[in-house]
Each structure stands twice: as structure tokens, then as C-alpha cells.
């Protein structure tokens, strides 16, 4: 029986808010001293709301379904009670070896992140707690050997867990705890059959944790599949809790997205670390190659890259090695992507006509000739009554996600270069910034309906519905007490950079994107496999393994890297933005009042005001040379 949903797609019958008083210290939760020592080492002063409410209930053996926003400490809320239970069992009987906890997560990146959190909290009891991450790329024989030693905690995606259960490598006969983290994503990622396999294998009476940022019908289905009678903790997000994100939207044409983002980063209108969300993998490489024309360094994060490379990109970003990540999350626009994947090449080849800036590129003409040959082959295939072979699609990892779960640290701003297709996706994207009480900014580009497909080389299919999606986003944010404000660039000042943008876009052809995509994948595979053992033995060499290097697939134009003074507005960067939008590093429209007062005080009592000597080079020119009369 399906439950009634409210406007936020939340099952109202299971939603219970709990905002009462909670513990002010971890020491009052009854945890093992070794766990408290690890907590103190991480400088956690007091438990968050979800931790204070969930940990005591978990220690009592209750099933828990918790809804709390990203970054609220849900991971520690289930890891600490699980470690406490394992330590108590080890103290009672050290000879009892079995898998005590199975933690299921939707992505490999999140599995790696959860494994690190477990290692952090078990730092002072590591001899008593053994953890295995099944998502690591190791031979099956090695994985079977590790599981044969009966680790205490197993972290896996549902697909990996089901695979090892079916091969009898993983035994859950004595399982005590089952965790499904990011529960609302697990079903949407296509793990239905795997979860059913796990549910059939898990014994009855297992304590279950369902942790999620939202309560949807998917979570309700998992509740009925795994939980007995869970206690539901629904920590609604208040406006004061999430007011750190300043949200802005810019209405612009399709090609003006590239113009504005070039101006933003080349003139450093936004400072700090930034995540740029784009619609698909090709789009990410188009933007990276576009940035390379101007000497702007960035790295790409998408589902095609090896998992070791993806994890390393996130780790290095958190260490402040990179400032810009261009991320594509295909799961957010899955339905649109399925439709576009068969039409992308044809639509882009048609872009060579009319207003296409790539029409004069010889590589494009060569591609068109190839397309013509493909049509002739298709006709011959029809004549011989042979079915047309489907185009091979690039292999993408199902166990990948970037807008949810992954812990990006100290993100100053999020830019929705391509607007997501739903308000939920938008909320999860902007949740990458303004975490742990910090402030941040979200800037979204929206293409008006009358400007859609006006510039075919930069057209993206989901932009057709940008205005409709923006209305839903604005309505959803207003319910939370937030506002998506319009942001206006002075386009008269920005237009001075337009011809440079056009030069750069002409260089980023479809052929260049394809070559860059292949080259990046080849390089990352080499780094991921060939150098893995070397970096395990020499961790100090990791700084040489950078992911923001130039792909150089597009024609490089050195003059675009420098911005001449004549392009700058007369009153500096203020002339472009004209306002200060808070957290991002836009220069203030007024001078520092205190500094100006100090300068005035210094000039008092010194007679005439200081003047700057301006020399006319024509009047001071000496044709006879210095020192001659």
C-alpha cells in the first residue's frame, strides 16, 4: 500500500519531527573510551542533532530511519554505535569471528569515504575492528581471501554485495547490523534486484539503519523490505540552518554561458574552490578545452574515469590542490540522456549549417563526409535486410555519483552551468557548498525559451525546459524560506570579451572533444593501474599525479591567455558585476573606510598635498642619450 505524498514527495504518514533537547557531549552517550578518544582527536566538540538522537536509540538495538540534510553527521550516527556493539562482543568473546555489519552505499566514492570514517573512529581499537571495502578494484580471488577472514564490517555497493553473496564468498548468517546510506538513491541507481538478493540472504532480527537526505517512496519501499518497526527521525531543515547559501540566477543565451564563465574565472570574480555542474561527459570536456584556451586550469570528474582516479580527484580537491572541478552527474538527467545519446552526433553535425561557428573547420567537413558514408552503408544494410547495428555507447560506471554523498570540503561556490532537470537535483547540487556552518554561493545559468537553439554548437537539450525548472526551483526554495535572486552582469562591459570567446569556441570542435575524452581516459587508466603500486610505496609522490593538466586536443591560441588592458572596463571589475554578492570574492564597490582615514591622517601637517609626478615621454625624450647635453 503506497503512502500519500506531500508537495515535497515525502511520505507524510512516516514523517516525524524531533527537535527536542539533545546531548551536549559525546561522553554522555555511553560510548567506549577508545571511541571517545578518536572523537576527541577529530576535534568534535559536541554531537550533531542526528547523532545525539540516533546513537542512544541505536545502542538500544532499535531500527532507525533518519532523514537529515547532507553534511549533518549521518555517517557517524550509525558508525559509532556499530563500533560500540562490535567492541562489546569482542570483549565478551574474542574467538567469535563473523561479519557483524554490512554497509551499503550507492557509489564507490561514498564507499571509500565511509571506509575512511570507520578507520578514523576505530583508530584506537584497530586491532579489534577489521573493515573491508568491496568496491576496491582487486581480483576476485583476493577479495574471496579477504572475506574468508571474516571482517567485522563490510562496505559495498548493493551490486558488489549481491555478487559475493551469490558466490558464497560473503556470509551474513551472523549479521547484526545492516546500513543503507543515501537510501533514496540506492533504488534510483538500479539496484532493485541486488537489494532483493540481499534481503533474502539477511537473517531476521538484524538491526537496520536507513539514512537519507530525503524521505521518498524509494525509502518507504526499503523500509518495508528491511525494517521491522523503525523509529523515524525526520530533522526538517530550517531556513536558519541552510541560510549560508546565497542563490543567484542569470538569464543568458546558450553561447553567453561560455562568455560569462570565461569572464568570471579569468578576471577572478569568484575566488575559492568551485564545482561546475554540466549535463554530460562531452559537455565537461568542451568546457575544459574552452578553459585551456585561456590558461584556466581545471579537472574533470565523470563516470567514465577509473574509480581510483575519481577518488583521487576528490581527495586532492579537498587538499586544495585544485580550485575548479567540472562535474557531470549523468544519473540526474538519465531520462533526457537516453533520448539524447542517439541524436547527439546528428544534431551536432547539423550545427555546421547556418550560424554554426565550426562550419569552416576542415575536421568538421571530414566528419560530414564520414557521416555521408555511414548513410550509404545504412542503405546497403537495408537492401540486404540486415538489421542496423546499434551504436556502441561508452562504458559508464553505474556506481558513480557526484552531487550526493561525496564529501567535498570548503567549496566556496557551485555553478550550475547546465541547470538540472528537477528541484531535488538542484538542492543536492548546491548542498556541496555552505557546509558545517560556512557560507557559500550558488550561481545558475538559465536559457530563456526564445533563445533556445539560437547557437547550435553550444545547445544542450535540457535547456529547452530551463524556465519551467526554474519556477519549480524558486517555489521549492521559497517553502524553505530562501530566495533565488536574479543577478545581472553589465553585458555592455562583457561584450568586449565576446570575440575572444568566439575564437576559443571555434577551436573546441567535436573532433577535439572526442580526442580529449579518449586521451584523458587513456591517461587516467595508466595512472590508475600502472602507477598504483608505486604510489602505495611512495605516497609522497602523489603530488605529481595531477588531474588538471592540459589535454591540448584543441588548437591552442596563446594570445587568449592574457587579458589586455584595453578590454578592461574603465572602473575595473566593478564595471562588470556592479554589486557585491556576499561570500564570493567579488571586489567591493567602495574603498576600505579605515584605510582611507589612515591615509588622510598621514597627510595632515605635511604641507602641500602629495602629488604624483606625471612625465610626458615626448617632452622628456633625449635623442643624444642619458647624460649628454
Automatic annotation (TrEMBL):
GO terms for cellular component: cytosol; nucleus. Its EC number is 3.6.4.13. It comes from the Eukaryota. GO terms for biological process: gene expression; ribosome biogenesis. The keyword Magnesium does not apply. Residues 24-52 form the DEAD-box RNA helicase Q domain. Gene3D superfamilies: P-loop containing nucleotide triphosphate hydrolases. It is found in: Nucleus. Its main location: nucleus. Residues 320-492 form the Helicase C-terminal domain. Residues 366-388 have a biased composition (Basic and acidic residues). InterPro entries: DEAD/DEAH_box_helicase_dom, DEAD_box_RNA_helicase, Helicase_ATP-bd, Helicase_C-like, P-loop_NTPase, RNA_helicase_DEAD_Q_motif. It catalyses: ATP + H2O = ADP + phosphate + H(+). Residues 337-401 are annotated as: Disordered. Keywords: ATP-binding, Helicase, Hydrolase, Nucleotide-binding, Nucleus, Ribosome biogenesis, RNA-binding. Belongs to the DEAD box helicase family. DDX56/DBP9 subfamily. This is RNA helicase. It comes from Cladonia borealis.
Amino acid at each position: 500500500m503506497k503512502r500519500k505524498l506531500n508537495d515535497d514527495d515525502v511520505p507524510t504518514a512516516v514523517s516525524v519531527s524531533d527537535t527536542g533537547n539533545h546531548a551536549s557531549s559525546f561522553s554522555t552517550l555511553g560510548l567506549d573510551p577508545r571511541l571517545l578518544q578518536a572523537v576527541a582527536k577529530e576535534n568534535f566538540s559536541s554531537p550533531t542533532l542526528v547523532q545525539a538522537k540516533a546513537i542512544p536509540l541505536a545502542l538500544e538495538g532499535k531500527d532507525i530511519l533518519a532523514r537529515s540534510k547532507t553534511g549533518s553527521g549521518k555517517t557517524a550516527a550509525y558508525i559509532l554505535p556499530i563500533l560500540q556493539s562490535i567492541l562489546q562482543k569482542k570483549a565478551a568473546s574474542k574467538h567469535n569471528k563473523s561479519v557483524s555489519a554490512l554497509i551499503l552505499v550507492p557509489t564507490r566514492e561514498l564507499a571509500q569515504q565511509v571506509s575512511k570514517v570507520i578507520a578514523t573512529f576505530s583508530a584506537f581499537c584497530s586491532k579489534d575492528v577489521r573493515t573491508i571495502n568491496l568496491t576496491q578494484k582487486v581480483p576476485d580471488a583476493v577479495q574471496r581471501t579477504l572475506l574468508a577472514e571474516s571482517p567485522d564490517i563490510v562496505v559495498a555497493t548493493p551490486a558488489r554485495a549481491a555478487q559475493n553473496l551469490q558466490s558464497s564468498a560473503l556470509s551474513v548468517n551472523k549479521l547484526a547490523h545492516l546500513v543503507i546510506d543515501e537510501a533514496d538513491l540506492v533504488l534510483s541507481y538500479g539496484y532493485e534486484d541486488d537489494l532483493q538478493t540481499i534481503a533474502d540472504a539477511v537473517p531476521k532480527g538484524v538491526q537496520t539503519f536507513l539514512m537519507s537526505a530525503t524521505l521518498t517512496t524509494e525509502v518507504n519501499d526499503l523500509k518495508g523490505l528491511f525494517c521491522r518497526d523503525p523509529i523515524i527521525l525526520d530533522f526538517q531543515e530550517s531556513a536558519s540552518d541552510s541560510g549560508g547559501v546565497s542563490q543567484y540566477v542569470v538569464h543568458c543565451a546558450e553561447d553567453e554561458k561560455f562568455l560569462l564563465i570565461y569572464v568570471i574565472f579569468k578576471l577572478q570574480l569568484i575566488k575559492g574552490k568551485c564545482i561546475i555542474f554540466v549535463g554530460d561527459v562531452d559537455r565537461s570536456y568542451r568546457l575544459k578545452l574552452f578553459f585551456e584556451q585561456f590558461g584556466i586550469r581545471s579537472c574533470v570528474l565523470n563516470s567514465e574515469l577509473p574509480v581510483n582516479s575519481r577518488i583521487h580527484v576528490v581527495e586532492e580537491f579537498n587538499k586544495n590542490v585544485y580550485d575548479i572541478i567540472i562535474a557531470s552527474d549523468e544519473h540526474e538527467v538519465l531520462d533526457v540522456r537516453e533520448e539524447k545519446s542517439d541524436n547527439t552526433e546528428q544534431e551536432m553535425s547539423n550545427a555546421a549549417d547556418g550560424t554554426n561557428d565550426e562550419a569552416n573547420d576542415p575536421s568538421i567537413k571530414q566528419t560530414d563526409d564520414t557521416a555521408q558514408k555511414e548513410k550509404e552503408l545504412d542503405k546497403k544494410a537495408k537492401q540486404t535486410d540486415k538489421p542496423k547495428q546499434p551504436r556502441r555507447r561508452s562504458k559508464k560506471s553505474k556506481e558513480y555519483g557526484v552531487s550526493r554523498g561525496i564529501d567535498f570540503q570548503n567549496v566556496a561556490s557551485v555553478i550550475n552551468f547546465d541547470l538540472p532537470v528537477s528541484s531535488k537535483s538542484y538542492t543536492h547540487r548546491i548542498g556541496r557548498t555552505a557546509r558545517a556552518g560556512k557560507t557559500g554561493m550558488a550561481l545558475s545559468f538559465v536559457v530563456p525559451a526564445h533563445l533556445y537553439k539560437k547557437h547550435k554548437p553550444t545547445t544542450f537539450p535540457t535547456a529547452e525546459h530551463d524556465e519551467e525548472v526554474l519556477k519549480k526551483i524558486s517555489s521549492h526554495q521559497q517553502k524553505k524560506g530562501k530566495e533565488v535572486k536574479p543577478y545581472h552582469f553589465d553585458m555592455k562591459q562583457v561584450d568586449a570579451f565576446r570575440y575572444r570567446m568566439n575564437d576559443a569556441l571555434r577551436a573546441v570542435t567535436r573532433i577535439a572533444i572526442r580526442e580529449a575524452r579518449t586521451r584523458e581516459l587513456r591517461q587516467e587508466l595508466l595512472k590508475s593501474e600502472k602507477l598504483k603500486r608505486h604510489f602505495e610505496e611512495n605516497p609522497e609522490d602523489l603530488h605529481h599525479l595531477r588531474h588538471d593538466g592540459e589535454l591540448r586536443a584543441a588548437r591552442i591560441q596563446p594570445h587568449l591567455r592574457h587579458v589586455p588592458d584595453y578590454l578592461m572596463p574603465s572602473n575595473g571589475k566593478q564595471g562588470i558585476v556592479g554589486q557585491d554578492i556576499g561570500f564570493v570574492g567579488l571586489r567591493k564597490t567602495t574603498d576600505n573606510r579605515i584605510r582611507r582615514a589612515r591615509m588622510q591622517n598621514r597627510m595632515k601637517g605635511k604641507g602641500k598635498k602629495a602629488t604624483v609626478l606625471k612625465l610626458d615621454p615626448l617632452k622628456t625624450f633625449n635623442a643624444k642619450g642619458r647624460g649628454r647635453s
